[in-house]
UniProtKB/TrEMBL annotation, chains A, B:
It is found in: Plastid, Chloroplast. The keyword Amino-acid biosynthesis does not apply. Keywords: Chloroplast, Hydrolase, Lipid degradation, Lipid metabolism, Plastid, Transit peptide. The keyword Transit peptide applies. Signal peptide: none annotated. Residues 42-56 have a biased composition (Polar residues). This is Fungal lipase-type domain-containing protein. The lineage of its organism: Eukaryota, Viridiplantae, Streptophyta, Embryophyta, Tracheophyta. GO terms for biological process: lipid catabolic process. One of its GO terms (molecular function) is galactolipase activity. Pfam families: Lipase_3 (PF01764). GO terms for cellular component: chloroplast. Residues 184-343 form the Fungal lipase-type domain. Residues 42-65 are annotated as: Disordered.
Length: 482, 482
């Protein structure tokens, strides 16, 4: 893993939002956030900055320092590194998820939070997992997103799936970044594109009032909302919704680092359906969650969205922008998934149609800045790719690595391994002799016991994956539970 | 691995053949073998027998001691163990074969001969590999049997495939068996049943005169004969045919152990297409190869055939019986492969048809004793199996383990692991929570190098897999090369 010397949030959070309202009501439900970030926030970090001063000076002197898009054309090398870093966090969700229906723990995370990155071979990644996030499949709205064991009475509830994690930058990384970064990574679908079909059946927009939204005309995809807000009291892991688990954990973390007077950032990452959850939760956090903690109001929130579908209507988009949430939307122009929902009703629809409908309500809209990549530009990628490969996250990270701006030639910069293109896809040209879809565990996780029998081992430390008592405590503090 | 206390060959080789001719001409090509094995051969072993005396006495006193079929009904427990042992030797060929076209070594054996069994987790198996056998795809008659790397200029010739091995029982096993056992294992097709189609196109019977046969009416499947006899001088590994490699190695080994006055047996094993090669090579060895070494004439030859197709015509069958080669033909009655070639013209064809054709020439015929098993008898096996699973070798070994004779209830005896049913198939009932086709190497063999790049590692010791100079030397001794 390449260690970075620069604070990513320097790019993403320094632009003060316009049209901000600052009501006096401080209730967490009603409060709009004041996002007039001080221009000098980088200087207020409590940690010493290492090796970053010269580059900092460069940006501070630049007139474009607050213009996010100016970092894309041409592509800023440090932004590129950060995009790849957060992409790897999203990729880690796929690699750690137990989606083997023969496993008794199918639906859980295969590795314990304490050794998450190490167990995935991401040594010295610079972050520590603080909490896992789970979702229940109560509504059955996106059935193919969820997976369960064929073992009906196994130790893991078939109603609950591990869906992501919260991690915090360690001291060394914090020093480099210039702030304590709370990263939230949402898992996408491991069952490849089966959910795509589902998605087309569940384009139903519903009001976001389950979240902190006060505007009933803000609508989001029902399926995403359900994954984020459903709960199932029958199981410890789904006693609280993903939303509640996340907000409680953020309350806990921001309190800890707030008391230490550390500068904090929140970065949310996800691929595919995970991108939708990233955007939805970013909205929710910005709109509601953190405002009851007065000293946390200025935490910049940004989203690294990879190959994400649209999440909400144009009102949702407008509101997200107003709240100052920064989204960088990375996608492959040949991938169809970012076009759902909203093949016909979206931000590019003709102005005539826009006049007929109430477009801010009924049109789905993408959010944030675009980083549109094209896999045909890479000389390492096969000429013809199947749909799942075009949607592949590792492909995107490869394209980011070789991107220098529109019209520029593809040229890899970080020395990122080309073999990763075939880790979960069939993308790299055959001449590089890397087998397609090579990521697999030895013997599907079976171990030979001393008696000679092959068995799937018991999962150690699974009881440490969630602390419901913490969730409850912090939900009370947030006023989300009485 | 269960260690056996009894000589398998006590069962298979003690029956003297009938109608044997004993010509005076001792030329290896023309000689017919004298297979009147002494009834007391078990007592002449040069190694002390351990723990076997009581069971030996049992058989010596039995009037059925020479009746092979009497060991099947009811199934003799020690024969069962031996069948499983040789089945595992055939299975080892699948697990060690590099059939990944992305590997530079595709077509070779993944593990070096010195550590073959250990590397496959078969510690203390009791045999040591003495030589690997290779075949070239010169005739292209059974193309799907062969596999090659997509790397056109790799270190391994695309024209050569590893096809089996010769192993010798170690001293401990030799003491248990009562003789030095030379085991020959032939690989079947790893590409599952794709070759089945090929086979149907290559039913062409050809004369076995490429072997030592003097009878032009003895015919065998052209495809099998080609795999066994083709050579390609362009590569060190195919400079000699599989046949020449095998005969040379047997000449070398029998000389070594013959000089030590050890009693020797030859057991040939193979699954599917490997079974065909086992039967073909058994015929060839019996007919020709060893007779130039006077002191080797009495070596009993037996074949453990698993799920094998027919190999030759009725004349071939008759000749094999006359030569005293014992074949135990183990198969699943629901498997279609043992029915090819010869759906219409085979040993069960109506007597009318037999009169119209010269049936000894034009009818394919199975050889040896049948051990017909039925997967529907096992309560552990799924009710519905796909064709490749019905043909699966691990399924057969499971069925052998539970077989006690016709009409008896299925009951596992050795404690053989049920999980092995799903090692390469989808056979075990889901309730046992063993994923189907679980046998796979971590990350398809890719290793992360210190620089962070994933690569297929170089194969170590591949140059030790064959000793062409040995082959040449012993072929000269056999008169097969001048």
């Amino acid at each position: 893993m390449i260690k970075l010397n620069l604070p990513f949030h320097a790019y993403l959070h320094n632009k003060p939002p316009t049209k901000i309202s600052t009501p006096n009501n401080r209730s967490w439900r009603l409060l709009k956030r004041d996002r007039s970030f001080p221009q000098t926030s980088m200087a207020t970090t409590t940690k010493p900055m290492k090796k970053t001063s010269s580059l900092h000076q460069k940006w501070k002197g630049s007139k474009d320092q607050n213009d996010f898009s100016s970092l894309l054309e041409p592509m800023d090398p440090l932004l590129r590194s950060e995009v790849i870093r957060y992409g790897e966090m999203a990729q880690a969700c796929y690699e750690s998820f137990d989606n083997d229906p023969y496993s008794k723990y199918c639906g859980s995370c295969k590795v314990p939070p304490k050794t998450f990155f190490q167990d995935l071979g991401m040594n010295d990644f610079g972050y520590d997992i603080t909490s896992y996030i789970y979702s229940s499949n109560t509504s059955n709205l996106v059935p193919k997103f969820f997976t369960k064991s064929i073992h009906s009475d196994g130790p893991w509830s078939p109603a609950v799936n591990w869906i992501g994690y919260v991690a915090v930058s360690d001291d060394e990384t914090t020093a480099r970044l210039g702030r304590r970064d709370i990263a939230i990574a949402w898992r996408g679908t491991v069952t490849k594109l089966e959910w795509y079909e589902d998605l087309m059946n569940f384009l139903k927009p519903v009001s976001a009032q389950k979240l902190a939204s006060r505007d009933p005309k803000i609508k989001v995809m029902a399926g995403f909302l359900h994954i984020y807000t459903d709960k199932d009291q029958s199981c410890m892991y789904s006693e609280f919704s993903a939303r509640e688990q996340l907000l409680a954990e953020l309350a806990r973390l921001t309190m800890i680092y707030g008391q230490k007077k550390e500068e904090i950032s929140i970065t949310i990452t996800g691929h595919s359906l995970g991108s939708a959850l990233a955007i939805l939760s970013a909205y929710d956090i910005a709109e509601s969650g953190l405002d009851i903690l007065d000293n946390m109001r200025d935490i910049p929130i940004s989203v690294m969205s990879f190959s994400g579908p649209r999440v909400g209507n144009t009102r949702f988009q407008n509101r997200l922008e107003l709240l100052g949430v920064k989204v960088l939307r990375v996608f492959n122009v040949h991938d169809k998934v970012p076009n759902v929902p909203g093949f016909f009703l979206n931000e590019y629809t003709s102005s005539l149609a826009r006049h007929i409908f109430d477009w801010t309500t009924w049109f789905y809209s993408h959010v944030g800045e675009e980083l549109a990549l094209d896999h045909t530009k890479s000389p390492f990628v096969k000429t013809k790719l199947a749909l799942p490969s075009k949607h592949n996250l590792e492909l995107l990270l490869h394209l980011v690595d070789g991107y220098h701006g529109k019209g520029t030639e593809f040229c890899l910069t970080s020395g990122r391994d080309k073999a990763l293109l075939n880790k979960d896809g069939d993308i790299l040209k055959g001449e590089y002799l890397i087998p397609p879809k090579w990521f697999q565990v030895e013997n599907k996780g079976l171990r030979k016991k001393p008696n000679g029998k092959w068995e799937l081992p018991e999962q150690k430390g699974i009881e440490d994956h969630l602390r419901p008592e913490d969730v409850e405590l912090h939900l009370r503090k947030l006023g989300l539970k009485v």
